[in-house]
Design brief:
By secondary structure, this protein is of the alpha/beta class. It has helices spanning 20-34, 50-57, 83-89, 99-104, 109-121, 134-138, 142-153, 183-200, 203-208, 219-226, 243-255; strands at 9-13, 40-44, 62-66, 93-96, 125-130, 165-169, 210-214, 233-236. The structure holds phosphoenolpyruvate.
Length: 256
């Protein structure tokens, strides 16, 4: 596989953190630190922070994303936000299928697929999360599970539309736990995902697909992880809330 054919992307997932005022402060601090990045840089932020972050990121190399979207364009879905609404604001990215959404809010592979479809139809780029629990890893089903999650999430997605899909491999046991997958484990599963793309689409599509690793990535372990042949950057939770840490990971991906 030819790493040069695809762009590494470092995306921050701020989760349920930062008021609009705090968000402005953080994005202003990140901006100069990542201005010379040689990789994609994205910050995915709470809905209420989007306006202020979009405004602050204007003219910079930082893409702005949301952390979820609904599958319908509009309607009686109290508390939800549609992909169309996000796109109309100028949002470019959306995380879909994060394990916290699957775990705490009952999202399934089927609803993940519906959300992916809606996001693509609205013109957004999707950061699609897949990954196994510790129990599933110990049962030896990681490869099958991640392949299945990927295939279902991408149902009805054309090869052309894959240019607006980034896949984030996030082992649930490594998210927010301080336990990082070894670089070999991360690469092995990212490679499985790439092989799944090759089987469903073709080799070209697989070679072009950006596949991130996510799970306690930090300045101290980022360089080794992003240097793996099938790892194209990372989805960063905790460390994306500190400008210096996030910038150090962007630097590692720029050099890796
Ligand atoms: C995440 O939430 O996507 C994530 C990877 O979190 P953390 O980096 O904190 O493990």
């Amino acid at each position: 596989m030819n790493k040069a054919k695809r762009q590494a992307v470092i995306a921050g997932n701020w989760k349920m953190n930062k008021t609009p005022a705090e968000a402005k402060e953080l994005i202003e601090a990140i901006k100069p630190l990542v201005a010379d990045a040689n990789c994609g840089v994205v910050c995915c932020v709470p809905y209420v922070d989007l306006s202020v972050v979009l405004e602050a990121a204007k003219g910079s190399n930082i893409g702005v994303g949301a952390e979820n979207c609904h599958w319908a364009k509009s309607g009686a879905f109290t508390g939800e936000v549609s992909a169309e609404m996000l796109a109309s604001m100028g949002v470019q990215y959306v995380i879909i299928g994060h394990s916290e959404r699957r775990q705490y809010f009952g999202e399934t592979d089927v609803t993940v697929n519906q959300r992916v479809r809606a996001a693509l139809d609205a013109g957004l780029t999707v950061i699609l999360c897949v990954g196994e629990s510790l129990e599933q890893r110990e049962q030896g089903v990681t490869s099958e599970l991640v392949a299945m999650q990927t295939k279902i999430a991408l149902g009805g997605v054309s090869k052309d539309e894959l240019s607006r899909i980034i896949i984030a491999y996030e082992p649930i046991w490594a998210i927010g736990t301080g336990k990082t997958a070894t670089s070999e484990q991360a690469n092995e599963v990212c490679k499985t995902i790439r092989e799944t793309i090759a089987a469903v689409y073709d080799e070209d599509a697989a070679e072009a697909m950006t596949i991130q690793y996510g799970g306690s990535m930090k300045p101290g372990n980022a360089a080794e992880l992003v240097a793996q042949p099938d790892v194209d950057g990372g989805l960063i939770g905790g460390a994306s809330l500190k400008a210096e840490d996030f910038a150090a990971i962007v630097k590692a991906a720029s050099e890796g």
